[in-house]
Write a structure and sequence with these properties.
- This protein is of the alpha/beta class.
- About 15% of the residues lie in helices and about 25% in strands.
- It contains four helices and 28 strands.
- It has helices at about 200-205, 210-220, 230-240, 245-255; strands at about 10, 15, 20, 25, 30-35, 35-40, 45, 50, 55, 60-65, 70, 85, 90-95, 100, 110, 115, 120-125, 130, 135, 140, 145, 150-155, 160, 165, 170, 175, 185-190, 190-195.
- The strands form three sheets. It has an eleven-stranded mixed beta sheet.
- A hairpin with a 2-residue loop joins β27 and β28 (about 190-195).
- It is elongated, with a radius of gyration of 21 Å.
- The protein starts with 7 loop residues before the first strand and ends in an 18-residue tail after the last helix.
Length: about 270
């Protein structure tokens, strides 16, 4: 068992012979390190955690009580195929988070850096989470979903399988989406794109001019009378050279599941 001599491992923890644990890592009571798991420098694994390999975890990760990372995918066709989980650096997994490994041969669930997973959030098989994303309590990702940088999923939200959320998009609480969410947009529910995530853009260092472009893109895509194809062509023609608009257009071109489109409030609704 290549466990560094200086690693702080509680005597009740169960460590598989094939695990690799850095000298600066800390493993709490009753944790189970099952199979080929690599734990990097300065990681802290809390009590009653289960880490299942093949799993590689980078440096500085914090894994809270009862969290399970790398267990079998919840997929009826899974028959023990060789799959894995990859976790980057400086992520926080709070209490009872679940992350499942890939579902098909050589499939991978991949988590980047500096993400925050609050209690009872879930990352399903074959998902990709980029950097600086936040999943609030009870946020759920179905299989094959993707979060780009700085996505925020509020409490008790859900993504349908294969859905992508673009950079700095935001999903409000108690809602779900079944289509791709364009970068920088705020989503109220599966039918309503509210507008631009201005606060998120400011915190990420975007300029006032960038925010204006995002707002103009929102108007073209969601408040014009054009068909989606026409709106995309207009956005490209009018603002395609602007970096924010170019990022939105690139995301649209990569969509396979389809894009969220707003349904305007009908007279009398919400009154």
């Amino acid at each position: 068992m290549p466990v560094a001599a200086l690693a702080q491992i509680h005597p009740t923890a169960v460590i598989a012979p094939e695990a690799t644990i850095d000298a600066s890592a800390r493993i709490g009571p009753y944790a189970v390190i099952d199979g080929p798991v690599t734990i990097g420098p300065d990681c802290v694994v809390g009590p009653f955690v289960q880490l299942v390999g093949p799993l590689v975890m980078g440096k500085g990760n914090r894994v809270g009580t009862g969290t399970v990372i790398g267990s079998d995918p919840q997929h009826l066709a899974y028959r023990g195929q060789p799959t894995r989980t990859e976790v980057g650096d400086d992520n926080t997994f709070r209490e009872h988070v679940t992350v499942h490994r890939g579902s098909h041969i050589d499939g991978v669930t991949r988590i980047g850096n500096h993400n925050y997973f609050m209690a009872h959030s879930h990352v399903a098989h074959d998902c990709k989470v980029a950097d600086h994303c936040t999943l609030a309590n009870g946020a759920l990702m179905a299989g094959h979903c993707e979060l780009q940088d700085r996505v925020f999923m509020s409490g008790n939200t859900a993504l349908h399988q294969f859905v992508r959320m673009g950079k700095l998009s935001l999903l409000t609480g108690l809602e779900g989406v079944s289509k791709d969410v364009i970068p920088f947009m705020t989503v109220k529910n599966r039918f309503t794109v509210l507008g631009v995530n201005v606060v998120g853009m400011r915190r990420a260092g975007y300029s006032a001019a960038d925010i204006v472009i995002a707002r103009r893109a929102f108007q073209v895509l969601y408040r014009s009378e054009s068909l989606l194809k026409q709106a995309i062509e207009r956005l490209d023609a009018e603002m395609g050279e602007q970096p924010v608009a170019a990022e939105i257009l690139q995301f649209i071109q990569g969509s396979k599941r389809g894009l969220m489109r707003s349904v305007r409030d009908r007279p009398g609704e919400g009154e």
